[in-house]
Design goal:
Length: 152
C-alpha cells in the first residue's frame, strides 16, 4: 500500500468514526468540522507514516500549501473540497503546476472528497482541465470519494 493509499484509508476510518460527517452543515459549522477532520487526519497520517507530509509549501515563495505532499510518490493530496459548488479544483491544479515549476517532482494530484465530487467533476470543464494538465504538465488528476458506511 502506498503512502497516498494509507492516507486515503485513514481518512475513511476517521469519516466512519464521525456519525454526522457526511451531512451538509453549511459555512461556519461545516468549516469547523472540516478543520477538525483535517487536524485528525494530519495527526494520524504522521503517526502511521512516521513523517509529517502535511501542509507543505512547495509552490514557491508564497503562502500556498497543499494538504499532503509525498515526494517519493510524486503525489499531492488535497482533501474534502470538491463536492461543493465553489470548489478549489482549478486553484489546486495550479498549485500542482507551480510546485512542478519549483522543481518538485509532481506526477499525481489526488483529490479526496465526500460523495458527490465524481458526479460534479464529470462536466466538460473539469474534464478539459484534467486533460490539459495531463497533456501539458504531465500531472495526472484523480478524484477519490469517501464512502458513507451507512450507504455501503
Amino acid at each position: 500500500m502506498t503512502k497516498a493509499e494509507k492516507i486515503l484509508a485513514l481518512a475513511q476510518t476517521i469519516a466512519d468514526e464521525r456519525p454526522n460527517f457526511f451531512e451538509k452543515k453549511g459555512a461556519g459549522k461545516g468549516d469547523k468540522d472540516t478543520n477538525s477532520f483535517m487536524a485528525e487526519l494530519r495527526l494520524r497520517a504522521q503517526q502511521a507514516l512516521g513523517e509529517d507530509f502535511s501542509e507543505k509549501q512547495i509552490c514557491g515563495n508564497n503562502n500556498l500549501c497543499v494538504d499532503f505532499f509525498i515526494p517519493d510518490e510524486k503525489s499531492i493530496e488535497i482533501a474534502l473540497s470538491l463536492r461543493n459548488p465553489n470548489t478549489e479544483f482549478e486553484r489546486d491544479i495550479l498549485k500542482a503546476i507551480m510546485a512542478k515549476e519549483q522543481d518538485e517532482r509532481v506526477l499525481n494530484l489526488v483529490f479526496l472528497s465526500k460523495p458527490g465530487a465524481l458526479k460534479r467533476h464529470k462536466h466538460p470543464s473539469s474534464i478539459a482541465m484534467k486533460n490539459w494538465v495531463s497533456k501539458n504538465h504531465g500531472i495526472e488528476v484523480a478524484i477519490r470519494e469517501l464512502r458513507d458506511k451507512h450507504s455501503r
